[in-house]
UniProtKB/TrEMBL annotation:
Pfam families: Pirin, Pirin_C. Its cofactor is Fe cation. This is Pirin family protein. Residues 183-283 form the Pirin C-terminal domain. SUPFAM superfamilies: RmlC-like cupins.
């Protein structure tokens, strides 16, 4: 049996505060010194905060995307999704929304009327995952999963919520186009867990809450950690409660040309995306 080797933390990147209207927002990537963790392009951490009754809800009305995938993690509260492909769902706390923008669609991420009336706590993560050039024009797709649809795998002193890929002998419900593994991890004080980090794969490690130790390095709250590629595991210790967003994937290694909601590999492709959107080829905008 081959002995596992833990990876070493290279650097930590703080999430930059960048509120959107009254929505508390932190963004660790892209940020100063870190353009991406290929293929992970972008993470917004919204909240945690409490909305008062009679609020306006989330500010993300209809807007287009092309060339990548978005994954939204509803940690508390709820979020409605509607898109030009006819998908319409409300995902509650503990659920996720996995959307393949592919060749292009228009979607809205809004608060349902019940949340706007009653208010309540809200915390949401949204991660953008790049697609290789051969898949950028794939057919758009959407999957919404509630908490009960996601395997909650017990580990000593914690839980791994497995969304895509594998953990031990378990598989997540999302079969990613590019073999991405993605999970959230919650640990109680005193817990230790070893997370898989296969050699050659890019690791995405963000501290949603708490300050875990990886080996002898303490990762600060709201920080993204990068790692060397000299091992195949990440050893995490929680001295106090911790929540992590964790995943790994094969790097794509292609140029990234981004313009607002479009991520392609050339400026010419960006121009085509803008023209196609303006020509109505992404379908009808959802009614909100």
């Amino acid at each position: 049996m081959t002995r596992s080797v833990p990876r070493t933390v290279l650097r930590q990147y703080p999430a930059q505060r960048d509120d959107i209207a009254d929505l508390v927002t932190r963004r660790p990537v892209p940020g100063p010194g870190l353009a991406q963790v290929d293929p992970f392009l972008f993470l917004n951490h919204h909240g945690p905060q409490v909305y008062a009754p009679g609020n306006r809800g989330l500010p993300f009305g209809p807007h287009p995307h092309r060339g990548f995938e978005t994954v939204s993690f509803i940690l508390t509260g709820e979020m409605a999704h509607r898109d030009s492909g006819g998908h319409d769902s409300v995902i509650r706390a503990g659920g996720i929304q996995w959307m393949t923008a592919g060749s292009g669609l228009i979607h809205a991420e809004i608060s349902p009327d019940s949340f706007k009336r009653a208010g309540g706590p809200l915390e949401i993560l949204q991660l953008w995952i790049n697609l290789p050039s051969r898949l950028k024009m794939t057919k758009p797709a959407y999957t919404g999963l509630q908490r009960e649809d996601i395997p909650a795998i017990a580990v000593p002193g914690g839980v791994v919520n497995l969304i895509a890929g594998t953990f031990g002998d378990r598989s997540g419900p999302i079969d990613s186009l590019t073999g991405v593994t993605m999970m959230t991890v919650t640990l109680d004080a005193g817990a230790q867990v070893t997370l898989p980090a296969p050699r050659g794969r890019a690791v995405f490690f963000y501290t949603v809450a708490g300050s875990p130790k990886v080996g002898e390095t303490r990762i600060k709250p709201f920080h993204l950690a990068t790692f060397d590629d000299a091992g195949d595991t990440i050893d995490v210790t929680a001295e106090a409660p911790v929540t992590l967003l964790y995943g790994h994937a094969d790097p794509i290694g292609e140029p990234v040309v981004a313009h607002g909601p479009f991520v392609m590999t050339t400026r010419e492709e960006i121009g085509a995306a803008i023209r196609d959107y303006q020509a109505g080829l992404f379908g009808p905008a959802p009614v909100v």
